[in-house]
Amino acid sequence: MSRIDRGLMALACLAGLLGVALSAAAAHIPGADSLKTAAQFLLFHAPAILALTGFAAGSLTRPGLSRTAAGLLVLGLILFCGDLSIRTWLQRPLFPMAAPIGGFALMGGWLVAAVGALVPARRV
Known about the structure:
Number of strands: 0
Number of helices: 4
Radius of gyration: 15 Å
Structural class: mainly alpha
């Protein structure tokens, strides 16, 4: 397994950890709907990143496409969930348009994953 795959897997596990932590925090903060949303996004995307990384490492799909898709999902989670969390705790955005940019990165990741599923893997 490549260093990139190991890094993406570690980031996916961190997303899962943060998803659980934000779920717990949201349960104790009245009106923390944004944290609930961030937690859900983290928990939904963590297994997808793990799967894409596994597909790349096992050459079940084109590794470049799967790694790109996983990377876009990670970037999207950082921007989208980071913005929602910062807005809840600090009452200010991460930076202007962070959440929408993160949302587009997430959609791009899913689109690249779909393309990767349709393009046959190279056989060696």
